[in-house]
Amino acid sequence: MNQFPITQDLILKNKNGWLEIRLNNAVNRNALKESLVEELLIVFEVAKDNTDIRGIVLRGDGGVFCAGADLKKMKKITESGKEAKNQAYDLSMTIGKLLKVINQAPQIVVSVTEGFALAGGFGIACASDFVISLENTKFGLTETKIGLTPSQISKYVINKLGYSKARKMMLLGTLIDGLEASKIGLVDFVAKNNEVLEKKIKDFKSQVNDCSPTAVATTKKILSFSQNIDSQRAADLFSDSIISNDGKEGFESFFNKRKPSWTIKK
Q1: CA gap 52, 135 in Å, rounded
Q2: Are 114 and 61 in contact, with CB atoms under 8 Å apart?
Q3: Buried b or exposed e, range 90-112, using 16+ CB within 10 angstroms
C-alpha cells in the first residue's frame, strides 16, 4: 500500500491483485463531497500504472454505495451570486473527469452497490465495467426531481442501458431495486443477501484473474472509442440548471423537506 496516499475519505485495501476502494462518508450516505472526489482521482491515477492490480472494487462504507453529489455544497453554489455559474461548471467538470477516469482505467472496475446508488452514484455504477448488487439496493437518477440535469453521466447511462431505458430513468427519476436494475441491464450480477453478495464478488474476481491484464487493458481502450463525451458542453448545461430558478427551488424544497413548487397536487 506504500504507493497509495493516506486518505481520509476513502478506505483502501490492496490484496491479491485487487484494490478495494470504500467511500468513507457514510454519515452522508457516501455523497461525493469535494475532498472525496479529489482522493478518488489521485488513487485512480496511482493505480493506473500499477500492473500488479488486476481489478478495482468500488464500494460504499456503512452499507450504502453512494447517494450522489454533495447537495449541501451545491446549495451553497446557488447562493454564491455571480460566481454560481463558474462554481457549478467547475463542479460538473470535476465529476465528469472522475467518471472518465473510472471508465478508462486499464483494470476491470466493478461497483458493488448496496443501500442506495443515486444520481452521481448511479453514474459511477454505469461508468464501471460491471455492477454487482444486492436485490434491495435502490437505484435512481433523481436530478430532475430537484431541478437539475444528469448531463455528465448521460453518456455512461445511455451506453449501459440503451437509449430507451436511459431516457426513462433520466427523465422520470424513477427509483428501482436491484432486481429491476438487473432486468434493464444496469446490474450484471444480483445477490439476495450479503453472504451471496460476497460469494459473487469472489467468483467475479476469479473470472477476471483468468484473463490477461494486457488484453483487458487493450480491450478497454477499444471499448472506450465509442464513449467520447463533450464534458464542457455537459458542464455548461449542468451549471445552467443548478443556478436556474428550478434548481434553487429544488434545493430549497429538498432541505426544507417539502414538495417543490412544480409538483402538481393530487
Answers
A1: 32
A2: no
A3: ebbbbbbebbbbbbbbbbbbbbb
* 161 close to 185: Cβ distance less than 8 angstroms: yes
| pLDDT at site 240 | 81
**136 vs 189: CA distance, rounded Å:** 13
Which of these, 49, 47, 35, lies nearest to 7 by C-alpha position?
35
For 135, residues 6+ apart whose C-beta sits below 8 A from its C-beta are 177, 178, 179, 190, 191, 192
Enumerate residues 6+ apart whose C-beta is below 8 A from 182. 133, 188, 190
pTM: 0.88
> What is the structure's pLDDT at 225?
65
SS3 138: strand
Alpha-carbon torsion 27, 93, 168, 186, what sign?
negative
pLDDT in tens, 194-209: 999 999 999 999 999 9
CATH for the stretch 10-193+212-224: 3.90.226.10
User: Which residues does residue 55 pair with via DSSP β-bridges, in sequence order?
Assistant: 18, 108
Per-domain residue ranges of the chain: 10-193+212-224
Cα(65)–Cα(19) distance, integer angstroms: 16
Cell 436556474 found at: 244
Cα–Cα distance, 203 to 198 (Å, whole number) = 9
Q: What is the DSSP letter of 263?
A: P
Contact assessment for residue 64 and residue 124, using Cβ atoms and an 8 Å cutoff? no
